[in-house]
Design a protein that fits this description.
Layout lengths: L13 H4 L16 E8 L6 H10 L7 E2 L7 E3 L24 H17 L2 H9 L15 H7 L8 H4 L3 H13 L4 E12 H23 L3 H15 L3 E12 L3 H11 L6 H9 L6 E9 L12 H23 L6 E9 L5 E6 L12 E9 L6 E11 L11 H4 L9 E8 L7 E4 L5 E2 L1
Parallel strand pairs: 1-2, 1-3, 1-4, 10-13
Antiparallel strand pairs: 4-5, 5-6, 7-8, 7-12, 8-11, 9-10, 9-12, 10-11
């Protein structure tokens, strides 16, 4: 599915905010994090347009709910020279220069400011609550998307009703913590390394070494060695990307929720509340929370690719690696994956557990996951997670679900899922959730 790409701007129009609730393709009862992705586009780069097009054609990873904001998809980086930046540009990663911690931090804070100037946090809230209408006079909110993604009853998230009851308030609070507070923006700053760049670096390096060798020996074998190395480097073909991913989270706490429900939310036409929401430029914000960098010097693709396919595949895998690393680094971003089925032998005894995750999510032999059960309190509507068991990925049964893995005939690409075996714990049932590592909300 292609996604529309428009430059970052501050226009905030009701027509942009008219959102239809999305139909989930998952039938299992669990809460996924919501994600929007943004690209830092470098039009000054030869292959910048190829990365731009590749990003536009890649879907949101299927373990997240798509919360794309169509008019905040691309940040145009002004032309820069080397690794320096002008007043508008970012510190840029180029071959031979790794960004420093200070440069990464500066980039992150600048991105945070740009996203908030574009009111992306407000647009994400508007999408959650289905703001729709042609003018402030006829625009209204609804909770259809919150109900769908959170598996709540309509009456539980009917704001007018919920605000009158203890259970209703608890359910709205739960929805905020489980859904709105788990809404993220991932800004991907992708630059690249070509074979020519590596070849040139190799020539320079070998030339220096060769010259030093000749100076010490009085011969010219060093220069000949450098020329040979240069020819080898020239014959190498490849395209590798350097991906800096910056993670931002929607700020949704009791104070923000109170402002929204009291002063902005309305299920019936109320121009004063809608206009107050549109005019509010400080309540709904994104905060920078984490950064990850990925550059695989040894990455080799085996399939036959067109130039567009090559760039798309490399970019997809690089961003996927960063998402996996960010999920391990930042707990709120952890992926929850349901147990797809219990695998049983001919005697009816369980020997494994299937889940629709694999190498794309960073699964390796021995990767361990908690199995938890999602429980919703019937009296309060609050969600809790109970620990059930620990499982690990089974050797030889890890699904290669990376982008274009089937085309490359990768090991495990023909599998329909990854098989896990139990390490310890109790009875595991389909629909229970797998979470890698520790998760603070899980109770023993």
């Amino acid at each position: 599915m292609k996604r529309r790409v428009i430059t970052l701007g501050v226009a905030f129009l009701l027509v942009v905010l008219g959102v239809q609730a999305q139909t989930s393709q998952e039938e299992l009862n669990y809460h996924r994090n919501s994600l929007a992705e943004v690209l830092v586009y470098h039009p000054e780069d030869e292959f910048g347009i190829n990365i731009y097009n590749a990003f536009n054609e890649l879907p949101i990873p299927d373990k997240y709910d798509d919360h794309t904001i169509s008019n905040v998809r691309v940040i145009y980086n002004n032309k820069v020279t080397g690794v320096k930046r002008n007043r508008s540009g970012f510190h840029k990663a180029v071959y031979g220069h790794l960004l420093t911690k200070a440069e990464i931090r500066a980039n992150a804070l600048k991105m945070e400011r740009l996203l908030n100037e574009a009111q992306m946090g407000k647009q994400m809230v508007a999408k959650w609550f289905g703001l729709n209408g042609n003018t402030a006079s006829d625009a209204v909110f609804n909770t259809a998307l919150v109900q769908e993604r959170g598996q709540y009853n309509a009456s539980d998230v009917d704001v007018a009703v919920a605000l009158q009851t203890v259970r209703g308030l608890a359910t709205l609070s739960d929805a905020g913590e489980e859904l709105l507070g788990q809404t993220f923006v991932l800004v991907n700053d992708i630059t690249y390394v070509t074979a020519e760049q590596e070849a040139q670096a190799a020539k320079i390096a070998m030339g220096v070494i060769g010259g030093l060798f000749d100076a010490l020996t009085g011969g010219n074998s060093g220069r000949q060695l450098a020329q040979t190395a240069g020819r080898i480097a020239d014959s190498f073909t490849g395209f590798k990307v350097m991906t800096h991913s910056y993670l931002f989270q929607l700020v949704w706490n009791d104070e923000v929720a109170a402002t929204f429900y009291q002063f902005h939310y309305t299920g019936v036409p109320d121009s004063a509340k809608i206009q107050a929401f549109l005019n509010d430029r400080s309540t709904y914000r994104l905060k920078y929370v984490a950064h990850e960098y990925e550059f695989d010097k040894k990455s080799v693709l085996k399939g036959r690719y067109t130039r567009a396919e090559l760039v798309r595949t490399i970019c997809a895998r690089s961003m996927d690696k960063n998402i996996v690393a960010l999920a391990k680094q930042y707990e709120d971003f952890k992926v929850k994956t349901p147990v797809y089925s219990v695998l049983k032998n001919s005697y009816g005894k369980a020997y494994g557990y299937a889940a629709k995750i694999g190498k794309k999510e960073g699964i390796k032999e021995g990767s361990k996951f908690q199995v938890v059960q999602r429980i919703q309190d019937p009296n309060t509507g609050k969600t809790t997670y109970k620990y059930i068991a620990t499982v690990k990925a089974k050797k030889g049964y890890i699904w290669d679900n990376r982008y274009n893995a089937v085309k490359e005939q990768g090991v495990g690409a023909s599998l329909p899922y990854t098989t896990f075996t139990k390490v310890s714990g109790g009875d595991i049932q389909p629909g229970m959730l797998l979470i890698e590592g520790k998760y603070r909300k899980v109770k023993k």
